[in-house]
Amino acid sequence: MIFRFKPKFPLVEINPLMNTNACRSGDLCQSHLKTINNALQKYITNGKPFRTQVVSALLSIPISLEEYVQRMRKIHKGNAVREVIKAEKKGYTFDVFHVQNHVIDLVEINHSKEFRQGRKMTKSYQNDVEHYGGLPDKIKTVKPPDCPLHFYQWMGVFKSDKRHAQGSLLVGRKLVGYINLIRHGNLILYGSILGHGDFLNDGIMYFLNQKTLEWVMAKDTPEKQGINYIMYAGWFDGTEGLKKWKKRTLFSPFYLRILA
Description:
By secondary structure, this protein is an alpha+beta fold.
């Protein structure tokens, strides 16, 4: 007897938006496509969902911030909303950033907890300052991406400190959490998302996620337009704590189908 696979979750289409008028980088974007599609291989199908396909955690871009917050209030008694408010009251801020301006902070975040989600941090999080280009000698500006549809961007949550420096460079704020955001057509990926262990109880990661969503929803520049979804790895990945975080921030389980 043949048992057919019956998907338990809905299917959404991801469009890399290659070879469109808005795609500007040619060979660079083709390389991006190859890299990201390879990374997503276990999450995507070209047709129907398959038995071993990993179910993705996906956040559909909401109609408005107000609607998003209202929906979050209905999950776990609005825990996520309270955490965002907590971070705001403590004075945390959000911004896109150039990694070299905060390289010491970023390495400190990566090293701030030996174990996360019940597992020891992987070698990729044990790199030193030199791996990220060394200490900065001047403030580097964040430039618009070469292609608005295919790019990487660092998003951060900061704690104000007028005396805070990276080596000899005064930056005036401390990076305490980050997202390495990847745009892949109509999809945003959280390539990595991490907070400093000493500040997690201040709600910084709920704050960072919501502010990143607000950044996407602004749609005031080409790189923020045409985005339909944010993806945060697999729906079943992580400990119960991470699974709660995804539910509270309105990520949901989906199968992904990619358009050629």
